[in-house]
Amino acid sequence: MLEVVRQQPRRRSEVQGLCGSLGVSITTVTDLHVGWVQYRLGVREGETNAVLKRTGDWARAVEELAKGLRPDYQPFCECGGMPTIPGATVKGNVRSRIELGFREKMGKVRSCFVEAGRGGSWRHQAIWADVIREQRPNQCKFDPRKGINKVCLVCNLFGTTSLAGLVKFSDFVGRDVVLEDRNFDFNMKLKVAPKGSVFRGRIDFFNLGPEELGLLLLGMGMRDGAEGRPVLMGRLKYRHHDRIGQVRYRLDTIRLSELSKGLLLEAVKPGEEVEGAKVAGGLIECARSEYEDFQVVDEVKKLAEAKR
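^ that's the sequence the OP posted. Answer follows.
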């Protein structure tokens, strides 16, 4: 089994590095569905009252309505009446890509495995098979009372049981997104955000180095600039990736806290906000230089090749 490189976790409250927030947008390259796994059945508006009035009895009304039940469209997540990608979804999407991106070097690896990382469909395994086959320990445990006080890089950044991470994801809201109905095989009906929909949110960071900020950008699919390549997210992203489940991240802005250190030779000063394009390339270069054991994977391309 590989040895996972672990370290003492840094605390949010001890300002020693970069603190601030990333303004990030997510644009749908294809349709996107993010919602609950459920199967809804519905009747037409007003039909219930009409049947109840005719039958005069709730039991008889329910019996009659049941004969006409039909599949309804599964909802997209909403917050305040607006389509929303939950922060937990975005966090998991970025975290898993970083976790799976690290490779073994001299019998050691920088990231552990959450238990879910080993399973998945054959399409998931077609993309990440070489990593899944590795014998890595599962997710880090953190319990100083038992002397377990070291975690891997990924768990330090994103958190694990009993340990808050150094990055925090807001919900991503699509203020101008108009949902549409889509039908798929097996009679699946979904409310989707159509191609070109834009969701905006924020990622707060605490005590990071520039290479760790760059690693976050790599986890969002960025290669050398502020806009990333298409990556997979949401429902049916493996089965119908050419129709649904592709998104593109973009770093719109970066703002440093007044208590933060300066970034990239003072390209961003404490308390200042600049466009993401000004610093994205430099941050990614820092990450590539520090994490030579990190492999960028074009998951959309690999999935397309696996389906041929």
